[in-house]
Amino acid sequence: NKGIGMGRETHIVKLESIASESFHAIKAAQSVDLNIKEKLTHELKIETEFKNEWSVGAIVGNSGSGKSTLAEKLFNAVSFTPDLSKAIIDQFPEQWDYEARANALCGMGLSSVPCWIRPMKTLSTGQQARASAALKLAHANENIVVLDEWTSTVDRNIAMIMSERLSKFARNNKKRVVVCACHFDILAWLNPDWVIDCNSQSFSNEHNYEKKNFNSMCENAAAHRGTCLASITI
């Protein structure tokens, strides 16, 4: 059942792996009465009914619940891979001017100019995550963009900022974006049109998540001029 349809469809993802037969692996398996000779399996069965018009979708669940595999099965999207040896500001499409590049990075909560002009490999894990999200959206030519491990390496305040900005970007630019995340707190700010919960193996076109109050944090994160630049030290 490759790809996404607009009607009611059932998707089954089966994850399989062979267990190690080392001494310690056998001891661990025996502690919970597992047969070391059998493959370890996890089956995910989701019934979806996507609406014709949607911009943002979310696949959430614990690690190992099948989020990434399900996203690949449903959307088959190819994602841009950033070059860690190059500066972020130099990796946007050539036709993008400076303002567009700056706005994209600030929109993902990365407003530090020194970070923009250094090779990505010198940035922190969280900074790389924000830069990578901005670049993947910029280079997305496919109808659907899949962002895996969404906000898994950033603090929760930045996660909220990134999620709200991503939602606005998708809707304003008429793109379809799907995020895979292990954190449920981003849903209120992402405001997705549909949610797949791999923990409960459920699909919903309706939701009502409580939005936490971070006041003007999102607006502050987008600033990249004036007093913001005045405090930068290189």
What does this structure look like?
- With 234 residues, the protein is of the alpha/beta class.
- The strands form two sheets. It has a five-stranded mixed beta sheet with strand order 4-5-3-6-7, sandwiched between helices. A two-stranded antiparallel sheet has the order 1-2.
- It has helices spanning 23-31, 67-75, 98-107, 113-116, 125-138, 156-172, 187-190, 217-221, 227-230; strands at residues 8-17, 40-49, 56-60, 144-147, 176-181, 194-197, 202-204.
- The chain is globular, with a radius of gyration of 20 Å.
- Helices cover 32% and strands 18% of the residues.
- Mean pLDDT is 79; it is low at 213-234.
- The protein has nine helices and seven strands, in the order βαββααααβαβαββαα.
State the total count of DSSP E strands: 7
Helix vs. strand class: alpha/beta
Strand order of the largest sheet: 4-5-3-6-7
SSE string: EHEEHHHHEHEHEEHH
Number of helix segments? 9
Binned, the helix content reads: 25-40%
Radius of gyration: 20 Å
Q: Give the strand content.
A: 15-25%
Could you state the oligomeric state of the chains shown?
Answer: single chain
Mean pLDDT: 79
In terms of per-residue confidence, which ranges show pLDDT below 50 for 5 or more consecutive residues?
213-234
Terminal-residue CA separation: 52 Å
